[in-house]
Design goal:
single chain, alpha+beta, Porin, 14-stranded antiparallel sheet, two-stranded parallel sheet, 8 helices, 21% helix, globular, binds 7-hydroxycholesterol
């Protein structure tokens, strides 16, 4: 406990002065203060003040793009006629996104950074063009308090669409623990099939040494409308044994968890294998080192809408890159003040900010139909509602982002 009755991170108040500390010598003091401060923070990651060297120049609204950096893996299930094998391909795609989502900013293990907190209405728009055709991305910050990001990713040629939204609730116990609230739904037109995807909890490893990285916790599920469930169990490097970022998964017919049809295992940052549970034959493998990601194409900054993330944060990002903290906070204040003014005006006019691509719904019949057997609750009170992609709004938007 410190003088304020607060716990320190993992029972110590200073990063080790040993060679394994990744904290620059001149920043050790600010890292220590940061560790002390997070022991008492309130669960809202956006309110966490981190030292300059841990600040990222990327906004959280960009993270939605991690779902489809391998477009061919994303659309592959649409070309499989057998529902059981389709469920295997959906599992493979999901597992292949984990490295992108949780460690791609961190190729050098222990360099995770704190993203920029998106403002209400912030947009991240782009597309991937490759052998899979055109895959489009729309990501929008649909709520600021609590922070909620909604996204829709679709490939019209393949008839595949992913839509979802998420918020994070953090707590402190030995380290930063993050529960994700929200879900994603993958729809495959050709089979009129839906897959409900739940989001794993995570925690930050390496805080004490100032070399943070993400480890996933407990389990997540993929539940299909065709009657299959995949359960993914995450485990990390224990005190004595185990490899970091490890998982095992099983795919079974609903209600038959004890009789898996397929099993999967590996490291989500490395290779993994999916096997037929009976014959043990390998049916799918994925090796991120030989599967290239397709770069996302984003408009040049001067061609972007003023609500688009990279344009809006340009000056802040430049200042962070230069390590100029005075300009960073001055430019952040410009955005925050503009936002405050807009909220004041909306309140005075008795209206709320109109979301560009998404609409709030009180509930989701699809979620309710799929979530029951995996015990998932929608928790819409924590995400200011359920956020659905609105085709009508999208039709009125700029041409590249109209649904094709
Ligand atoms: C590094 C530390 C000191 C500061 C804390 C940073 C913290 C707010 C960041 C770190 C990792 C971030 C996760 C990220 O790994 C991936 C995702 C998946 C994406 O689909 C939705 C956002 C989420 C959960 C990020 C939230 C912000 C996290 C926890």
């Amino acid at each position: 406990m410190n003088g304020n009755g607060q716990k320190h991170a993992s029972g110590t108040s200073t990063p080790k002065d040993s060679e394994d500390s990744a904290v620059p010598a001149q920043s050790k003091g600010s890292w220590t203060s940061f560790l002390k401060s997070i022991a008492s923070f309130n669960g809202d990651l956006s309110s966490m003040t981190a030292p300059p060297f841990i600040l990222s120049t990327t906004s959280l609204v960009e993270y939605s793009s991690y779902w489809a950096e391998h477009p061919s893996t994303f659309v592959a299930p649409a070309n499989e006629n057998n529902p059981e094998k389709r469920a295997v391909l959906v599992l493979k795609w999901f597992l292949s996104t984990l490295k992108q989502q949780y460690s791609s900013r961190n190729e050098k293990l222990g360099s995770e950074k704190k993203p920029l907190n998106p403002f209400l209405g912030e947009l991240f728009l782009g597309k991937w063009e490759d052998d899979a055709g055109t895959t489009q991305l729309v990501s929008e910050q649909v709520s600021h308090h609590p922070p909620v990001t909604a996204y829709s990713i679709w490939n019209s040629k393949a008839g595949v669409r992913l839509q979802g939204y998420n918020a994070q609730k953090a707590s402190f116990s030995r380290t930063i623990n993050v529960k994700q609230i929200g879900h994603a739904i993958l729809h495959i037109d050709a089979f009129d099939e839906d897959y409900l995807i739940t989001l794993p909890s995570l925690h930050i490893e390496g805080l004490i040494t100032g070399a943070p990285y993400v480890e996933l916790d407990s389990s997540s599920y993929i539940k299909s409308s065709s009657g299959y469930t995949a359960k993914i169990d995450y485990s990390g490097k224990g005190w004595l044994s185990g490899k970091k970022n490890t998982f095992t998964a099983s795919l079974y017919q609903d209600g038959k968890e004890k009789q898996p049809l397929y099993t999967a295992d590996g490291q989500w940052t490395d290779c993994f294998t999916i096997r037929d549970a009976k014959t043990k034959d390998v049916v799918e493998t994925f090796d991120p080192t030989v599967t290239n990601t397709t770069p996302l194409t984003v408009a040049e900054i001067d061609q972007q809408d003023e609500m688009e993330s990279r344009r809006a944060w340009q000056k802040v990002a430049q200042a962070i890159s230069k390590g100029d903290m005075n300009t960073t906070s001055a430019e952040k204040s410009v955005i925050e003040n503009q936002q405050r003014e807009m909220r004041k005006q909306e309140k005075a006019e008795g209206r709320e900010w109109s979301r560009r691509f998404f609409t709030r719904a009180p509930k989701s019949a699809l979620f309710d139909a799929l979530a029951n057997s995996i015990g998932e609750a929608i928790n819409s009170n924590l995400t200011d509602g359920v956020w659905l992609f609105d085709q009508e709004k999208a039709k009125d938007s700029a041409p590249p982002f109209q649904p094709q």
